[in-house]
Amino acid sequence: MKKKFLALSLAILIGSSQILTASAAREDEINQSKQQAQSELDATYAKIENMEAQQQALLSEIDEKEQELVQIMAAIDLLNNDIANKEVEIEKTKEDLAEAEAERDKQYEAMKTRIQYLYENGGSDAWAQMLLEDGDLSNFLSKAENTQQLYQYDKESRENFINIVNQTQELENQLETEKGDLEGMKQESETQKQQLEDLLAQKKAESSDYDTQIANAQSMAAEYTEMIQEYNAELQRIEEERQAEEARKKAEAEAAQKRAEEEARRQSEAQQEEEESSSSNSTAAGSSNTSRDEGYTNTNTDTSSSDTSDDEDDSYYEEEEQEEESTGSSSQGSATGSAIVNYALQFVGNPYVWGGTSLTNGADCSGFVQQVYAHFGYSLPRTSSEQRSVGRAVSYSEAQPGDIICYSGHVAIYMGNGQIVHASNSAPYPQGGIKVSPNAAYQTILSVRRVVG
């Protein structure tokens, strides 16, 4: 009977184990697929984070370039205003020049008329005739003195008006040169403006492309997430089926054990009845009811199954952001303003090259100032807008040799006496060059910076 019970229990266990084995294999397969999907999801999230960081850096660069574009556009407006004012000054100077030339010609014609009258009324004998006609030497000397004074007046007037004409002509030339400087700077600013606009268009296109890539990656991440949820649901269903199968197996085992115990009890009762019937045939006098307790041992075979569960290790990528703090250091030298000016003057006549930093082969305005100061150990920023923040600010009335005069889109080194030395993309050199200009205030001065002293 015991063997029959064991055989039944074994059959139940074999059937259950086959089901559990198939379930475990399917569970392993799903776990592997889930782990692969989780790895892909983590990689996609890392890719999204990297693209968002790159896009953010790109947007920051776009903001900076837009601010720079606004500054250049403001500089162009200011240069247009300075050019318009310079044209007004030039027109006024031309009018003054025309008036001076007319007055000069008028004085010259008057002088010629007086000379002509004198010679037509006596020629070289005029003085003798005046003496004979007058007869009075004192009157003659008085007339001679008056005539000499008239000659002297004519001479001085003519020289004075010639000087006025020359000075007015020089002023007009200077204004034309200054206007050329302004127009050259405007052209340079227009070029920078166009380059910035092209760069901004490119950067904005790149940012839009990032939007598309990020949206595609997010869509892919959503698909992986949905796939993982389906895998989790399948694993949950397998777990529930396994628990149900284990419960069914346990119930069948308990039922089989109960049936075996019941069969053993019936057999024990039948055997006991048979023994009692045999003992009742004994003699009545000496009969004694003997009861015989027969014990038997029931062996309960408990089958236990152990649930196996796979611990799933979900691995996630952790990105550790490390920020590198870079601190810019600028060397500080020692020099005098006059030494800086004298050094800068050595390069007068060398060519102007936009974006250049060579004092001999070509430099633009900010490159010229930067390299002159670098010779004395001072590290200045590269652009004219950045150089407006170096050193400390002083008023133009307090400007000293060596100070930096800052205009809209232009910088120069102050020489003293209202003069500057700078790299300018205009006359008198064919393509511009390093030169001295006599009027530091030829355009609007935005700031005067003192680095030395």
Q: SSE string, helix = H, strand = E? A: HHHHEEHHEEEEEE
Number of helices: 6
CATH architecture of the largest domain: Orthogonal Bundle
Q: Beta-strand level of the residues, as a percent range?
A: 5-15%
Mean pLDDT: 77
Q: Globular, elongated, flat, extended or rod-shaped: what is the shape?
A: rod-shaped
Query: Which stretches are poorly predicted, pLDDT < 50 over at least 5 residues?
Result: 1-10, 283-331
CATH hierarchy, class of the largest domain: Mainly Alpha
The main pleated sheet reads as: 6 strands, antiparallel
- Total separate domains: 2
**Any idea of the CATH topology of the largest domain?**
Helix Hairpins
Structural class, from helix and strand content? alpha+beta
* N- and C-termini, Cα separation: 116 Å
| Helical percentage | 55-70%
Strand line-up in the sheet with most strands: 3-8-4-5-6-7
In words, what does this structure look like?
- Helix 1 packs antiparallel against helix 3 (137-279) and helix 2 crosses helix 3.
- The protein folds into two domains: 2-275, Helix Hairpins; 337-450, endopeptidase fold (from Nostoc punctiforme) (Alpha-Beta Complex), CATH 3.90.1720.10.
- It is rod-shaped and about 205 Å long.
- It is an alpha+beta fold.
- Mean pLDDT is 77; it is low at 1-10 and 283-331.
- The chain has six helices and eight strands.
- A hairpin with an 8-residue loop joins strand 6 (419-424) and strand 7.
- Strands 3-8-4-5-6-7 form a six-stranded antiparallel beta sheet, sandwiched between helices.
